[in-house]
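Changelog entry

Holo records now carry the ligand SMILES as an explicit input line rather than a separate metadata file. Below, a converted record for pyridoxal-5'-phosphate, shown in the new format.
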Amino acid sequence: MKIETFEMERWQSQWENVVEYNLAESGVDPLTVEELLGGPEAVQELGRRQMLYNQGNGTPELRDRIAGIYPGAKRENVLVTHGTCEANYLATWRLVEPGDEVVVMLPNYMQIPGLARGFGARVTAFHLREDRDWAPDLDELNRAVTPRTKLIAVCNPNNPTGGVLSESAMSEIVSVAERAGAWLLADEVYQGAERSGETTPSFWGRYEKVIVNNGLSKAYGLPGLRIGWTVAPPDLIFELWSYKDYTTIASSVLSDLLARRALEPAMRARIFDRTRSILRRNYPLLEDWIKGHGADFSLVPPAAGAIAYLRYRHNVNSSELMKRCISEESLLIVPGDHFGMDGFIRLNYGVPPDHMHAGLDRLDRVLRTVEKVLGARG
Ligand SMILES: Cc1ncc(COP(=O)(O)O)c(C=O)c1O
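Structure line, unchanged by the conversion:
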């Protein structure tokens, strides 16, 4: 099977560990193993672990911890996956047949639309509208969903906009899914990374055909663990587990253990506090930088995630601009083109402040060159 290129992940995979300044991430500066475990003795203890195959669907202890986050969920409702990306992959692979209709929220982390097209679906969209502070166009959703819709995929909080759905938008999305009898897949990986401190409510429990995917890469600052999960009805979870036999079999024993630590309730609260304090510390720096550029940039303030989806007014294509950032300044930022939206860039503000300042200075230098060379001012 041929599959379209997942532009943003290709971009990250190729460059994130090569450039000097990476402002293309969407999470916060990651924790160390020692910070997570609480000291060198615990790290030594980790060194004595035998490198077994882990329990395929995740240890019962980890599944219990995850289930504890979702009211009414039990261990049987949970499958531990290799990051949220595997959770999205397994659900899409299991549910989407050639000819199915799939409706996705756009813009979006583009994994599910790309996969669904690869599996032969007809993919249509409903959009988040910039002029409504990234609230969804629910009329468009209603028009897109038909009795043949198999799956509706949303991302809340949203990547790349950082927008969070209102309670009424969530209810309407659930009603539309229910009317069509479609599965509703909610990627909630940015839950817990809200600047306000108010945790975004989950879609879990709002309808019997809801699938919630999440993981430790963003709000928890633990992308290197590669731990994600699906919460869904037990029958579906059991099937998804059998699909996982074909992908990664099991997560690493070490990651399972560290994930259990991260999800201890007190630790989880501490990690969310850390994430939010990074966001609150850095957001004003970004705001100042934007103010310093007058009308050249505009931003609907993101509610969650360490991402700012900036509209720029320079008359230059976003991929071209971002390629110049790599080649001229060893700086990585995501172009709006990767979300099908030229004229935007997605900037990470979850990094240490000196890194952020240096990265933004480099972006300024590229913008000045572009203005000089291309006369690129909109
Ligand atoms: C919405 C969304 N889902 C899933 C992922 C992949 O996350 P993970 O590292 O948990 O696989 C990302 C990464 O950027 C994302 O933005």
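Spot-checked after migration. Residues 265-291 form the longest helix (27 residues). Residues 26, 83-85, 109, 155, 159, 187, 189, 215, 217, 223, 228 surround pyridoxal-5'-phosphate (CB under 6 Å).
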